[in-house]
Amino acid sequence: MFIVLELITSGELLDYVASLGGLPENITRLCFQEIVDAISYIHSLGICHRDLKVDNIMVDSLCCMKLVDFGFSQIVNKYSDEYLRTWRGTEIYMAPEMKLHLPYKGTAIDIFTLGVILFTMISGHIPFREATTNDIRYKLIIDKKVPSFWLYHQKNKPPGFYSESIKSLI
């Protein structure tokens, strides 16, 4: 199987997020909707990406988001409960079931990663180092101490930096 992509010379989403220390919420919402639409489309075709990250999203000259690097993608039967058993992707974006080497749904892995991408787009940094209980910030989420998670990330940010709607979406 081959995937042919257009040449994008404007750079990675990571470049914009890093240079600005995060994107304004209104811009993030527009960009994120395009990313979700792209993931929804590939999922409708029975493909899971498995290596979603801000580095694998390009921004074209019209500021449209373009999903790239399908090297770890997998064709899945979208009508079955088939689980995948190969662990691919980038460590800091991996879902907990991948970190634990458990069978997983490819589409669910992509959706987990979308939350990490959204957080990174807004804040300019990742929410945690790894999705395991060894990571203090991730453990706050697992232990249902979500307000403490947001309090931790609110440090060095202006008051109300994370809107309630963005927190809820993430």
How would you portray this structure in words?
This protein has 170 residues and is mainly alpha-helical. It has helices spanning 13-20, 25-44, 96-99, 106-123, 136-142, 146-154, 164-169, and strands at residues 47-48, 57-59, 65-67, 74-75. The protein has a single domain (13-132), classed as Transferase(Phosphotransferase) domain 1 (Transferase(Phosphotransferase), domain 1, Orthogonal Bundle). It is built from seven helices and four strands, in the order ααββββααααα. The protein has a two-stranded antiparallel ribbon. It has a two-stranded antiparallel sheet with strand order 2-3. Helix 2 packs antiparallel against helix 4.
Question: Which descriptors apply to this entry?
Answer:
170 residues; mainly alpha; Transferase(Phosphotransferase), domain 1; two-stranded antiparallel ribbon; 7 helices; 4 strands
Structural shape: globular
SSE run: HHEEEEHHHHH
State the major sheet: 2 strands, antiparallel
Q: What's the CATH topology label?
A: Transferase(Phosphotransferase), domain 1
Q: How many helix segments? A: 7
- Total domain count: 1
Q: Would you count the extended β strands for me? A: 4
Distance between the termini: 33 Å
